[in-house]
Amino acid sequence: MAGTPASRNREYATAHESFLRHRGFRWAKVALGLCGFSLAVYFLTDPRPRPSGSTWIGYTLGTIGALLIVWLALLGVRKRAITPGRWSLKAWTSAHVYLGLSLIVVATLHTGFQLGWNVHTLAYVLMMLVIASGMFGIWAYASLPRALSDNREQMTQGQMIEALHALDRQLNDAAQPLDRARSDLVIAALAQDYFAGGIGRRLSGHYPAYATQAAVNALSLAGEGDAALDRVEKLLVRRKAMLDRLRRQMRIKAMLEVWLYVHVPATMALLAALTAHIISVFYYW
Amino acid sequence: MEERVRVAIVGSGPAGMSAAGHAASLGMSHILLEKTDHLSDTIYKYQKGKHVMATPEALKLRADFGFEAGKREQILDGWNAGAAALGVNVRYRSEVLKIEGEAGDFLLTLAGGATVRAETVVMAIGTQGNPNRLRCPGADAPQIQYQLDDPGEYIDEHITVIGTGDAGIENALGLAADEVQGNVVTILNRGTDFAKAKKANVALLMEAAAAGRITVRTETSPADVRDGELLLDTRDGQETIRCDRIIARMGSAAPRKFVEDCGIRFTSEEREAYPVLSPLFETTRPGIYVIGALAGYPLIKHCMNQGYDVIEFINGNTALKPADEDDLARLFAGVPGGRTVDEWLALLRERIAIFHELSALQLRELVFLSRVRGFRAGEVVFERNDPGSSLFAIAEGSVLVEVSPTDSAITVGIEQGSIFGEVGLISGRRRGATVRAAEDLVVVELSRTAALKLIASVPAAARAVARISIERQLLQIFGSGLTRDDVAELVEGATVEEKRAGAVVLKEGDEGNDIFIIRRGSMIVEKEIAGKPVFLSYLPAGSYVGEMAVIDGSRRTATVRAAIRSEVIRLPGEAFVRLLARKPDLLKKARTEMERRREVNDFIESRKENFSGSVDMYSQTAQFLVDRGIGEATDVLLIDETLCVGCDNCEKACADSHDGLSRLDREAGTTYAHIHVPTSCRHCEHPHCMADCPPNAIQRGVDGEVFINETCIGCGNCQRNCPYGVIRMDSVPPRKPSLLSWMFLGKGPGPGEPAKAWRKKNAGQVEQPKKAIKCDMCKGIDGGPSCVRACPTGAAIRVSPEAFLTVARLAEDR
Fold this sequence. Notes:
The complex is a heterodimer of chains A (about 280) and B (about 800). Chain A is mainly α and about 280 residues long. Chain A has 11 helices and 1 strand; from the N terminus they run E-H-H-H-H-H-H-H-H-H-H-H. Chain B has about 800 residues and is α+β, with helices and mostly antiparallel strands. In chain B, helix 1 packs parallel to helix 7. Chain B: InterPro entries: 4Fe4S_Fe-S-bd (IPR017896), 4Fe4S_Fe_S_CS (IPR017900), cNMP-bd_CS (IPR018488), cNMP-bd_dom (IPR000595), cNMP-bd_dom_sf (IPR018490), FAD/NAD-bd_sf (IPR036188), RmlC-like_jellyroll (IPR014710), RnfB_subfamily (IPR050294).
């Protein structure tokens, strides 16, 4: 319905697509190609005495795998080094995900299925651990953000905590007319540490000794009509809702991060084991 | 008994009083006729204790009375004493009703029937008696007043002051000065600038606004005065505020009827026009002189000088030069041509279209505030992308505008008498093209403030500027190959209309073939499908709508309404039809454009059954974004919350790209349908932050980014003016150790904005000043905005609204 002015002289534009779909699955295609190539050379040749890391195919796949591992680990540097230039972390993530997955094929074929209790297999196992944790990460990144967004409803985490504090202050005032037993319930609710219970609680979102819940239950049984009691009960219900939201927020954020606590240290261990693997191979050539 | 004098002076304000004082000191027989029972009623009626300023500071005072800045009472006492000492012959309570007779023998009839005979008459009656009135429904309501005597009279009231000239600002400050009075004071400004007011007053107002004592509403005008409340037209639509009293200070106009009855002609029919005057202040009726505000001079110093001068002229000293002569002579000194000041001024007025209807005195004042510059043929006046917002008027010679950024040989000429650089007045953008002198050139360079003041106070100049900018906009939009003559008919019929937020410009299904160009603001295009409006697209300033109906004679195919308060140029359809008939190229271009839009329409039609849900969703999302101010954005950061993992790498990247301070708050902001608008600059089409920056440090760069340069003084005006809260005040933190030494040695705080504690511990001896900080779209950083580059999942995107808010995107798969 109209003419618009000539577009501004901006060179950069950003496409609205996720890291998984980046550029029409460019890196997925590259990774598939790499897997296809590895499978082809593995099954189309017949090395003697048997397929292993020390055939020329083994060395080729091993070199590709080692270089990939080092490059994949550099994502951590890329993410933090905000240098000028036409790079995009999304493209890096996309490549990281698909090429990382392709290592399952490349490295497994590199082993020639010779596994044992040695430093070589340690490197392989660590790599698979890194990949497995990474797969959890992909699942988390692909499915949790929507839940995080729905749960927070435009509130920031700081605002949630602030809202809880505000409710606590109101509860403290509102509970003054209550009798001893009921006051104790409110005090217990207020005194309880929101996040006590450690990582298990945080990730499961299951808090059995839930003082606010207990107080709500007890007060809701205690007859209608008492205005002060009603008010405290309403505040407690609101506090519970806010606390639930905050706990969900913390849970989802924890899920989005927890795998990195496996992924990154395992990567460091992998780099060490990989170094040992390579040195030992060449030392005992 | 009838008095007979050499000169009768009507009105005892600064001008009349100074004239009478000088007549007295020369021993000239005179009479000073004053309507009230005291001298200088205008100053007398200033609010109690008001500080009276003496601007322009550079101007010399030439009068028998002293005058310097000070309190109202002090100044009035000084003048009363002076009048007594000089032996001024004052006659109070003597309103002049009629002036008859000829030069040498005028007969002045006073209220009450008394008469005075005078050889000459000096009129110095000012314009206070004739304030400009409100022009909206309810304008005659009793709570509206045009005058404020004592601000201390009002307590616990909601008071709205309309008009941001000096009078309005001073009234607002007076009403809010004492907190104990409990007044809630709001001041309305139709635009965003405070061009008509003195700088010092604007500074005081901003200070009061920052302290929360006064609410300043820009881009707001009254729409309806109701009992106890006031309906406002604002940038974002209509709003009602509580309002017990309205003080309207929207300037005043000459008491025209009386002056015309005396046989004096005015420069034009405009309400704000002034009497035609000779350089000696003589009117079209010989023997009657006009000075002061009635001559177009509201400043006390000017008035007093004119009082002195006019008596000298009447006394036969016609060679006397005005007090600003030396300053003007200095201004013209460096310019080739060897003319005198008077010759220059006559030349400027005659040649430059926007100066035509200025009085000699107004022109003097304007030139006093400007620069006059000479250029040799081929010299550059300004380069493309230079910062600058001044307006140039060509006094002699002509210029060539290099319209193409790549080929300097493609030029368009601008001839003598016209103006250039006017885009700077409207949008605050950088210079769009390089301008060279085509031949030896003399230009008057008006600062943005002086130009805005000219436009605000001289309607003829405003029309001339509007006409030229409409013409240029048409040529730009409809492309090369058109000449000024081609569009002359369109320009002739063009009218500028203001549209408040939400106002409908075109309605789907209506007849009509006028075309609209969006001059400022933006529009949204909607189509009604199954009873619901579907958002089709977003149109930024510079777009045009309505030409489809012209080309194929159909009804309007969609509804167009203003997203924010906007200004459109309405062009007559018939004239456009004739233009298309003459220019087949233009018709072809228009048809191609139309074809593209048809496709969008067809797409919508095809989707309406099977995808009504998604179309609905899209429309609501688009509306949400427009509500969040995307309507005035040129480039905005959005976050797709279905992809955002909350890693805050965007914030860290922003901090690491800019001295360790992030200009973005990812988590804060609003969200709809998982599209999150974080707290980050939108680079508005008409930036609110730019409106009042004392060092003019906020500018627009080549890519449209609005940025703050190093001249920022940290006053915080921009932070207060930004409606989106995206500007913060902070000092630059100490330098961090490198990334590698953090990674391997654990030195420093790591990526992102360092924590307060670390900053405090590592701060140097010298305290860093706090300055305003906002997104500059990573200006000058190769690769573009780092927030987007550093997003690992593709959640952060930067979009221009016209590209993002189009229904065609529905067809794209994410």
